[in-house]
C-alpha cells in the first residue's frame, strides 16, 4: 500500500453471490457487495437496535477473485480489507457521478459464528514482474479496465 491510500476493514454479509468476470487480457475480476449493519444496545428499552446499513461495493482481482468465487456465497459473513477508492465518471447524459468502493487486498469468512476449512493453493515461486510475489498476471487492475467508468 502506498502513501495516501485509505485502508479499510469491514465486516458484514455478502448481499449476493460474487460475480466473476474476465478482462480482455484474461485477468479474473470479481465484484460483490458487503452489507454491514451496526448494532447498539439501547439502555432505555433494554434491547439491541440495528443502525443504518452500509453497502460497500468491492472488487478483487486475479487469483483472489477466483478464490472468492469458489469459496464465498450470498449471506456469508466476511471480513474484508482493502483500499478505499473514489471513482468519478460522466454519464451519457453528461451527469457527473462518483462512488466509493473497496479494492480488496484480502477477504475471508468471519469465524465468529461459523467454521471454515482452509485449503492452501500452490503459488509460483517466481515473483511477478511487478515485484509482488502474490500477484498473478501482469498489468494493474486500472490498466486492465480500459475505461474511465468504474469497474462496478
UniProtKB/TrEMBL annotation:
Segments of skewed composition (Polar residues): 142-152
Record-linked Gene3D superfamilies: Nucleic acid-binding proteins
Entries under PROSITE patterns matching the protein: SSB
Single GO MF annotation: DNA binding
Matches recorded under CDD domains: SSB_OBF
Region spans: Disordered: 124-152
InterPro entries in the cross-refs: NA-bd_OB-fold, Primosome_PriB/ssb, ssDNA-bd
Keyword terms of this UniProt record: DNA-binding
Keyword Secreted: no
A Pfam family recorded for this sequence: SSB
Subunit structure as annotated in this protein's UniProt entry: Homotetramer.
Protein name listed in UniProt: Single-stranded DNA-binding protein
Organismal lineage: Bacteria, Bacillati, Actinomycetota, Actinomycetes, Kitasatosporales
Gene assigned in the entry: ssb
Amino acid at each position: 500500500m502506498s502513501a495516501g491510500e485509505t485502508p479499510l476493514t469491514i465486516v458484514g454479509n455478502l448481499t449476493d453471490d460474487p460475480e466473476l468476470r474476465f478482462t480482455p487480457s484474461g485477468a479474473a475480476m470479481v465484484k460483490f457487495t458487503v452489507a454491514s449493519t451496526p448494532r447498539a444496545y439501547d439502555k432505555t428499552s433494554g434491547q439491541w437496535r440495528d443502525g443504518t446499513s452500509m453497502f460497500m461495493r468491492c472488487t478483487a482481482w486475479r487469483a483472489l477473485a477466483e478464490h472468492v468465487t469458489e469459496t464465498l456465497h450470498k449471506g456469508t459473513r466476511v471480513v474484508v480489507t482493502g483500499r478505499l477508492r473514489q471513482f468519478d465518471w460522466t454519464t451519457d447524459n453528461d451527469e457527473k457521478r462518483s462512488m466509493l468502493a473497496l479494492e480488496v487486498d484480502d477477504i475471508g469468512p468471519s469465524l465468529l459464528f461459523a467454521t471454515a476449512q482452509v485449503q492452501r493453493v500452490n503459488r509460483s515461486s517466481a515473483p511477478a514482474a511487478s515485484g509482488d510475489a502474490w500477484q498473478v498476471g501482469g498489468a494493474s487492475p486500472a490498466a486492465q479496465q480500459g475505461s474511465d467508468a468504474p469497474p462496478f
